[in-house]
Specification:
Blueprint (H helix, E strand, L loop, with lengths): L12 E5 L9 H15 L4 E3 L6 E7 L5 H10 L3 E6 L3 H5 L3 H14 L2 E4 L2 H9 L9 E3 L23 E7 L8 H10 L5 E7 L9 E3 L4 H9 L3 E4 L8 H8 L4 E4 L4 H5 L3 E4 L5 H10 L1 H6 L6 H10 L5
Parallel strand pairs: 1-2, 1-3, 3-4, 4-5, 5-6, 7-8, 7-10, 8-9, 10-11, 11-12
Helix pairs in contact: 1-12
Length: 314
């Protein structure tokens, strides 16, 4: 789906307010870099963290910006504003409900529209008692950059050699699945399987291979060299790691939590306890081609268009 030209953007600048960092970095950062790239590709004037005289549209991300600075900017002039809300952070960090409260308070004060990355994220905010105007809510998933994360030239699975399983995570938060990976390290048959972890983790393994965080292009190449993606992260609203793996053609075995079921859909299997994992890996191998054919990844152009359509010019 191509981005539709919106006449009211002519001569105006879109500003994304976020603490950007060069990859490798977290999933929200990765997605917003891709969004910025694809909106620019469509010919729109978009850029990070600068609000000037031609700025009309402001997208701000979760809490990853100077709230005092932005509130002063938004009070001085009326902009069309969209807030990409993450979390609830208290659920995937296991703390910081006060940070969720700050995010929601800022949202109520300054957001014309609110984007949640998954139905899970929206519903859990409501369950925590945070209320939003349903007429100004949009559920829009993240999407990986298809120029980088794609299944082109990926190798076919070989059932005659070791099946290659991979997990990735920028964050070393224990809720990203560390305990499950430690269980796998002790219980998986490593004569039949290889298991690679790419990213940051506070664990030492006897059998799992750890690779330090890689820039996106290198990570995509590593993903394409593997057969199955496994994630044990808890309460992720819309895991970029899972989306990147799916885009590279990998079926997924995932902990039944957060937004995982919404993005994996029929392209993998969920587990609720570690003891289910090994049988599910075998099940993926048995149904591999069918699962690959059921992979659906959000299209970055379509996602970018949905973001743009929330902006209005009076």
């Amino acid at each position: 789906m191509e981005l539709n030209p919106l006449k009211y953007f002519t001569g105006y600048k879109i500003s994304i307010i976020n603490q950007f960092a060069p990859p490798p970095y977290g999933g929200g950062n990765q997605f917003l870099l891709a969004l910025n790239k694809w909106v620019k590709k469509a010919g729109y004037d978009i850029g990070p963290n600068k609000i000037g005289i031609n700025t009309k549209f402001v997208l701000f991300n979760s809490f990853n910006f100077d709230m005092n600075w932005l509130s002063k900017k938004l009070k001085k002039k009326k902009y069309s504003t969209v807030h990409r809300v993450d979390g609830p952070i208290a659920l995937y960090r296991g703390e910081n409900i006060d940070l969720d409260k700050r995010i929601v308070d800022f949202n109520r004060s300054y957001a014309d529209y609110t984007i949640f990355q998954s139905n899970y994220s929206y519903n859990e905010h409501v369950n925590l008692g945070f209320l939003f105007d349903d007429n100004k809510i949009k559920i829009i998933p993240n999407a990986p950059d298809p120029d980088i994360f794609n299944s082109e030239n990926r190798k076919e699975i070989s059932k005659q050699t070791k099946i290659k399983i991979i997990a990735t995570s920028w964050s070393s938060n224990i809720r990203k699945g560390q305990k499950t990976y430690e269980w796998i390290d002790k219980n998986l048959n490593f004569k039949k399987y290889d298991f690679t972890f790419v990213g940051n983790i506070n664990a030492k393994f006897e059998n799992i291979k750890i690779i330090s965080p890689k820039k996106s292009e290198d990570l995509a190449s590593i993903l394409r060299d593997h057969d199955i993606f496994l994630t044990a992260s808890q309460n992720d609203p819309c895991s970029n790691a899972v989306l990147e793996a799916l885009a590279c053609g990998l079926p997924v075995v995932y902990f039944n939590s957060g937004g995982h079921p919404e993005i994996v859909r029929q392209a993998g299997y969920s587990f609720s306890k570690n003891e289910e994992i090994i049988d599910l890996i075998k099940k993926v191998v048995h149904n591999y081609n069918d699962l690959q054919n059921k992979i659906i990844v959000p299209d970055i152009q379509n996602v970018a268009n949905q973001y743009l359509e929330l902006f209005r010019c009076d």
